[in-house]
Amino acid sequence: MEEKVKILLIEDDPADARLFNHSLKESFNNKYELFQAADLTRGCDALKESIFDVVILDLSLPDSFGLDSFKSIHDECADTPIIVLTEMEDEATGINAVKLGAQDFLIKGKIKSKTLGRSINYSIERSKLLKELSVNTKNLEERTKDLLREKQKLSEAQSLAHIGSWEWDIEKNSLTLSEELCHIYGLQTDIVLHTLNDLIAFVHPSENEFVKKAVTTSCCTLQNFSLHHRIIRPDGEIRTLHAIGEIVADSSGKAMKILGTGQDVTERFREEELEKLVMAATKSFNSVVIWNREGRIEWANEGFTKLSGYSLEDVKNTFGEVLLNGNAEYKESQSLYFSRVVKEKSPVSFENMNFAKDGRGFWTITTLTPVLGKNNEVERIIAIDSDITLRRQMEEELLQANKIAEHSLMKGNKALTELMIAKKQVEESMKVKEQFLANMSHEIRTPMNAIIGFTKLLLKTPVTNDQSQYIEAIKTSGENLLVIINDILDFSKIQSGKINFEQIEMHLSTCMASVIEMMLPKSVEKNIKLCSKIDKRIHDHLIGDPTRLSQILLNLVGNAIKFTNHGETRIAAELKNETEEQVEILFSVADTGIGIAKGKLSAIFEGFTQAANDTTRKYGGTGLGLSIVKQLVELQGGSIRVESQPHRGSVFSFNLQFKKSHRRWNEKEKVFGGDQEFECSQLVGLKVLLVEDNILNQVLAKKVLGDWKWDVELAENGLVAVDKISRTDFDLILMDIQLPEMDGYEATRFIRNKLSGRKAKVPIIAMTAHAFNGEAEKCFLTGMNEYVSKPFEPKDLYTKVYQVLENQARNDEVMNT
Q1: Main-chain dihedrals φ then ψ at residue 491, nearest 5 degrees
Q2: Comparing C-alpha atoms, which of 237, 216, 235, 385 is closest to residue 227?
């Protein structure tokens, strides 16, 4: 009576357990005994109580997972063959389990009765084979007769399982092959291969180095190996093998032999590949048909049935004649494409006309892909059809529409031409407007630079009280006029959409202190208290546009002081929201001034608007300030609001978001902070070329620079400047932009491109009355190092000169190291 196979299944999923039991019934015809354990603990208990022929182990259990599960079972029953189960995405774990001693691994969801039965039989036979092979090797000299008998049994077992064995004596560098391995490799049994490299020579060239590396690594680490690779037999046939190698080492840990097996798994791999193709095709929405080499249909998916109306039974084993409706031209064309795929062994795509079961014609784009088998020949052809009938109809309709469109286009060309002319005229008008504003800025700001500069110089000289009062009036009028000019230019920039915002590192406290410092003289003049408060929770190191923030605050504080006759003006910054990367700050400017009537609040932010008709006459201004402020806030993603009562004051508040700066700040980076006294002793004896055509500005600049003990040489235009720099070395050039003969841009390009050495690298700072959008960027692109707008503040000019020279010195030091 034939003994039943005793199987222990360690599996926690009842559905999977039932599926295994069903597959075992089909494979062993009830000639088996199945014992089930739902977790690792019960599995180990079962192995202690009984002996099994094989253990099937799920690597994903409630009380253990992965290779830990395998190691626990292997430690409990080292002599019992183990087959591990893995999920589809965890195939690598199964391979690693085989390397540690498992006989095989199966992927759940892909197990069939035939596959399961074959794996169990092979695992049992392979386990017996390796045990017997190990025992017989140790007793080789003592049991010659038994060895011959065992070799015969081994040969029969190998033939049954398509497994051959080999032995490599590392010390003697000799190789022994079994008959079955010779059969797998397509070799005569009497052929002699002397070394393992002779056997590896049959490995496919693309995998040869991989196999060599695996064997070498095993010899070094004394770890067994398990891998799949392809071989090329002498007759040219390509086969796929599963190779396992076991290292035999001496007492000192030196590798002496490798005992190996090679199993031919070519057919198994082909079946799995076809299963993958069928599985993928089943899920595809496109029509998929598998044809054999002769051009007969083997299989078709549901997408084919939906597209053509034919079922697989209608077309199986046919050449697909019904799809062509007897059309000889279509049939000949399709045959040519199939022949081309078989000959070239590469995919082909073409458009094709087919006919459905109901007689309806439809167009498809067909892709034929070859499936290669043994000897690298085409075994099957996969045809994927995509329905393009609608696209073909649309193409035909499009051709008709194009004809109509061409006629309409001819009519529209005239209108388009007229539109382009009008567009060009508008663009030219905008350029004229922009150029007018730039010229106006230059022509007004140039004399304003001299007026404000000289008044400041006069105030430093001994004057009578009356003279001081007159000069201060001139200075105040000039500054007010400059504010009006700046308001008009800013309004124009915003209206044209050409205003930009910087994202640079800034100190909020420094920015606020600078505003207080700049507005303090006006508040003292009117005997108004000016104070500020910053929420201590606000991160002081921020990233934003400090210039625009100062502009907004200066406008609001300036208005508060202007419209307040007694009391105070307060600036506050309060933390509204905070995240790890940014903060939202609520700024407010409050005063105790004349206030705004409720009916005027809705229009206070409109351009050219002030709260009352007599405000302009009494206080001056353009009425653009608050409109500019509102747009500057909103363009940065914020909002502004106002609360006010007549004769009780106003509160303007707005919110802005800033990123946090996590860089360490070096106080030395701030040459002149807002709360520091202006020092001009750091730079002495500089040799400066002043390029300026306005006589008053020449006098003013030479006076300011002379007070700093700088040696100043004058050039009245760009040509003179180029000549002087070509002959003499200067530490710095202060370059006006709008110059006669040669302007500042052209002169700078000449210096940077035509001169060499130190002369070509001399720092150049633009000093220009141009204040229109893009002027600073244009200066930097031309090659200038910095930009100062007229009228200039001596402190700002000195600071920028210091920073430019310090940067150049730092760069020179880097270049020389």
Answers
A1: -60, -40
A2: 216
Strands 504-507 and 687-691: unpaired
pTM, two decimal places: 0.35
pLDDT of amino acid 613: 45
Amino acid at 135: V
* Burial call 80-96: b when 16+ CB within 10 Å, e when fewer: bbbbbbbeeebeebbbb
What's the length of the chain?
817
Tell me how far the alpha carbon of residue 166 is from its chain's centroid: 51
Beta bridge partner(s), residue 105: 84
Does the structure show a pLDDT above 70 at 673? no
Evaluate if residue 729 carries a pLDDT over 90: yes
Angle of helix 40-49 versus helix 67-76 axis, rounded to 10? 10
Q: What's the pLDDT tens digit per position in 585-628?
A: 999 999 999 998 887 887 788 754 444 444 443 444 445 678 88
Read off the DSSP letter of residue 167: E
What six digits make up the tokens of 447?
């004399």
Residues 656, 633: contact at Cβ < 8 Å? Answer: yes
Contact 633, 640 (CB under 8 A): yes
Q: Is 109 helix (H, G, I), strand (E, B) or coil?
A: coil
Phi, psi of 300 (to 5 degrees): -145, 145
Contact between 103 and 53 under an 8 Å Cβ cutoff? The reply is no
The per-residue pLDDT for range 455-480, each reduced to its tens digit, is: 766 666 777 766 665 566 566 556 55
Tokens of 751: 């210096």
State the burial class of residue 184 (Cβ atoms within 10 Å of its Cβ: 0-12, 13-18, 19+).
buried
Contact 657, 576 (CB under 8 A): no
pLDDT-above-90 percentage for the chain: 18
Fill in the amino acid letter for 345.
Answer: K
CA–CA gap between residue 8 and residue 24 (Å, rounded): 12
Q: What is the DSSP string of 553-590?
A: HHHHHHHHHHT-SSSEEEEEEEEEEE-SSEEEEEEEEE
Contact 171, 256 (CB under 8 A): yes
d(Cα 569, Cα 554) in Å, to the nearest integer? Answer: 12
H-type alpha helices, 29-167: 40-49, 67-76, 91-100, 113-138, 144-161
Spacing of C-alpha 630 from chain mean position: 36
Distance, CA of 24 to CA of 53 (rounded, Å): 14
Using DSSP bridges, classify how beta strands 687-691 and 711-715 pair: parallel, antiparallel or unpaired. Answer: parallel
Find where tokens 């892709």 sit: 367
Surface-to-core class of residue 549, CB atoms within 10 Å of its CB (0-12 exposed, 13-18 middle, 19+ buried): buried
